[in-house]
Design goal:
Blueprint: H1 2-71, H2 78-104, H3 117-146, H4 152-214, H5 218-266, E1 268-273, E2 278-281, H6 283-288, H7 300-304, H8 308-320, E3 326-333, E4 339-350, E5 356-364, H9 366-429, H10 435-463, H11 466-470, H12 473-488, E6 491-496, H13 506-525, E7 531-538, E8 542-549, H14 570-580, E9 584-589, E10 595-602
Parallel strand pairs: 6-7
Antiparallel strand pairs: 1-2, 1-5, 3-4, 4-5, 7-8, 8-10, 9-10
Helix pairs in contact: 1-2, 1-4, 2-3, 3-4, 9-10, 12-13, 13-14
């Protein structure tokens, strides 16, 4: 029936699917097991070959130890003995290390150390010979280190011990090597049997797959073949692209060769030995120093300079850097007196183990260096001009200080002095008998005394306020604004916007105070200001003081910001003081709109 046939086909398909899965699983399992077993045996064989190789090398090393120790019987030269001692010591270290690794195993050498009981017994038999050779060789090394001039007779006993034990050690190691090879052969035979078994299992599985899988999959193979044909076309295309890449590579190589030749002609290139003798010289070097023919100079220093001092400097550079890289500027002087500056790099390299050379690569920086020297001369001249200008400013400052002292002295003499004279005259003229006149004179005396006290306070306050040294800059500026406001009748106010209460060093505080004092005095005397505001604020790095007035202002220019009527050197003194404490001064003013002066002083932590 159709229904029965459809059911049968469906069942068959399910069975085939299960068979496919089972067959594929069997193949995968056999492949994994075979790979694991084969890799295990291959790893064992690899370690076996290493063991056999190192065991065979032990025989060679024992023979080398015997040969080197026997040389000591015929060698008398001290240096030759020391060389033999070094050779014995090197061979002995390898011999001892390999012997221990063969017995106990070593990961770095790939030695497993899982020796059979028979090989372990063989090592025990050969150990006495190994220990005798080791002890005697170490004794020989110790004697040569203590006395390189020791005679052969002094070491004859140890040499004889080494020679006497060599045969026993060689015989024992031959047996050990043979046994290692036999055990390795047994492993190979086991691997062959295992491979035959795995091959049989694989053939059975493949035959089953041929009957139950490959034939039904024939149709799928056709599609795979078509894909392979397409892949072949793609491979041909890739091969064509590879040829194009190869041609491009050859073209790049040619371009690099041309570039190399161009660099040889353009770079200052030389090759020297460690003594500074010229081995090879580039064309540009020859042209720069007008070398007529190769061989005119043997020494590189003679080529570069005709001056003895410069030659010695170049020789010292070569001596100090024949094993390390160096880069810097070198001055050279040709025979015709031309000065040449070179930016030079010394690159040491080793052609053989004991042969070193120095590669010199340089560029001509004469033009740049002459410009630098000229710039340095100009900088020095400017520095000297600045010093001269600073001297002039300093003299002006001293002159201003002298004028200020003279002004204070004149104020005291003309003001306080005359008032004291008047006070003394009035005191002498008082007649206690004339009560009314005496009372009037006393009232005048009180007024005069108040004027004297006010003048004294003004003079002393202008000299140095005690608040500055006792409490710091903000209290001192507060006192300054209050006193000047009281004495002048101007509205002078201080605002501490950020509550600054830290102390600066005394030089910074006195300069900030004097600059602020000068700015307020200028606003009072020359700007006709009625309101002056002093603001103090700070951040983590800057303390800022601003003096802002509502005076008549003045016109500022790009190169000059001094008031034309600011008392001559007043603004200059302010700028010099702010420079002295590493600060900055900004002046903003406009005619009819007042003046704003800002001080920014860096705060150090």
């Amino acid at each position: 029936m159709p229904g029965d046939g459809f059911t049968l086909d469906q069942r068959t398909f399910k069975k085939l699917s299960r068979l496919y899965i089972l067959a594929l699983s069997a193949i995968a399992f056999s492949v994994i097991v075979s790979q694991i077993l084969i890799h295990k045996y291959l790893d064992d064989q690899e370690s076996d070959s290493t063991v056999v190789n190192i065991a065979g090398r032990q025989r060679m090393l024992s023979q080398k130890l015997t040969k080197e120790t026997l040389k000591l019987l015929i060698v008398e030269n001290r240096d030759e003995k020391l060389n033999i001692k070094d050779s014995i010591e090197a061979a002995l270290n390898i011999w001892k290390f390999s012997h221990t690794a063969l017995r106990q195993g070593n990961d770095s050498l790939g030695l497993p150390g899982n020796n059979s009981a028979e090989i372990t017994a063989m090592f025990q038999e050969v150990d006495p010979f190994f220990q005798n050779i080791t002890n005697s060789s170490e004794a020989i090394i110790e004697q040569l280190e203590e006395n390189p001039q020791i005679s052969a007779e002094g070491m004859r006993a140890e040499i004889a011990t080494v020679a006497r034990n060599e045969a026993g050690f060689l015989h024992g190691m031959d047996q050990i090597v043979n046994r290692f090879e036999e055990e390795a052969g047994e492993k190979v035979r086991r691997l062959e049997n295992l491979e035959w078994l795995l091959m049989a299992i694989t053939l059975i599985i493949l035959l089953s797959e041929l009957l139950f899988i490959f034939l039904p999959a024939a149709k799928g193979v056709r599609g795979t073949i078509q894909k392979l044909l397409q892949a072949e076309k793609d491979a041909k295309k890739m091969a064509k692209d590879a040829d194009e890449l190869s041609n491009a590579k050859e073209k790049s190589v040619k371009e690099l060769r041309v570039l190399n030749q161009a660099m040889n002609q353009t770079l200052l290139f030389a090759r020297l030995d460690v003594d500074g003798n010229i081995l090879e010289l580039g064309e540009k070097f020859s042209r720069l120093f007008k070398l007529r023919k190769y061989g005119d100079y043997n020494k590189f220093s003679d080529l570069l300079s005709a001056k003895e001092e410069e030659r010695k400097h170049i020789e010292h550079l070569l001596e100090d850097n024949f094993r390390k890289e160096w880069q810097g500027e070198v001055k050279a002087t040709t025979e015709d007196g031309r000065t040449i500056w070179l930016e030079m790099a010394l690159i040491p390299f080793s052609t053989t183990a004991d042969n070193w050379e120095i590669l010199v690569i340089a560029s001509d920086i004469t033009t740049r260096k002459e410009a630098q020297i000229e710039i340095e001369d100009l900088r020095q001249k400017r520095f000297q001009e600045k010093i001269d200008q600073q001297k002039l400013v300093s003299s002006k400052i001293i002159e201003n200080q002298e004028n200020e002292q003279n002004r204070i002295a004149k104020d005291i003499h003309d003001g306080i002095g005359q008032m004291l004279t008047g006070l003394n005259f009035n005191l002498e003229s008082i007649d206690v008998k004339q009560t009314e006149k005496a009372a009037k004179k006393i009232e005048n005396l009180k007024q005069l005394t108040g004027e004297i006290i006010k003048g004294v306070r003004t003079a002393t306050f202008n000299l140095m306020p005690p608040e500055l040294s006792d409490y710091g800059i903000v209290p001192a500026l507060t006192k300054l604004t209050q006193e000047l406001s009281r004495l002048t009748g101007k509205n002078i106010i201080l605002y501490d916007k950020t509550g600054y209460n830290q102390r600066l060093d005394s030089l910074a505080e006195i300069n900030i105070y004097r600059i602020t004092q000068e700015a307020i005095n200028n606003a009072i005397k020359y700007a006709d200001s009625t309101h002056i505001i002093v603001s103090v604020s700070h951040s983590n790095t800057i303390l800022s003081v601003t003096i802002d007035d509502n005076g008549k202002g003045f016109k500022t220019t790009k190169n000059k910001t001094n008031r034309p009527d600011s008392g001559g050197m007043g603004m200059t003194f302010m700028r010099e003081r702010i420079k002295y404490i590493q600060g900055r001064l900004f002046v903003t003013s406009e005619v009819g709109k007042g003046t704003k002066i800002t001080l920014n002083i860096p705060l150090t932590k």
